Amino acid sequence: MDGDAITDSAEAFYLMRQRGITNVIVMGVHINMCVLGRPFAIRQMVAQGQNVLLMRDLTDSMYNHRKPPYVSHFRGTELVVEHIEQYWCPSITSADFLGGAPFRFQGDVRVQVGDGGEPQGWYDDWYLKRSGSAEAGSTGDAP
After folding, report:
1. In sequence order, which residues have a C-beta less than 8 Å from that of residue 84 and are 6 or more positions away?
2. Which of 64, 72, 65 is nearest to 127 (CA)?
3. pTM of the predicted model, to two decimals?
4. Phi first, then psi: what are they for 70, rounded to 5°?
């Protein structure tokens, strides 16, 4: 029973049960589809009583910034993470697990704000410009 296993089905649940695995860290692409909804994904594992964490910086979404809510791809992914944290499971970053800095996609040009009474978090430059923030610069990926 020892060793690695690869599966893309509900078989994952049975493998974890056989091996006594109850703590699971989930990461991967298409967080709003596969990572959340497949038979071996977050929703199903939570329903099966697993202790689930999402490693949020090692995920990506299938999101089109030309459709609602009209935010950048990176903010769209972040919105799905917020949904998962609210309704399904807590999240961590790779830095929480491995140390060092969290992973960041090369094209992610958002800036972190939080001083001066603004909400803390990562924001796209185009959002900051629209909100009149002093943090706004000349980079960003406006929809």
Report:
1. 31, 36, 42, 54, 91
2. 72
3. 0.73
4. 60, 50
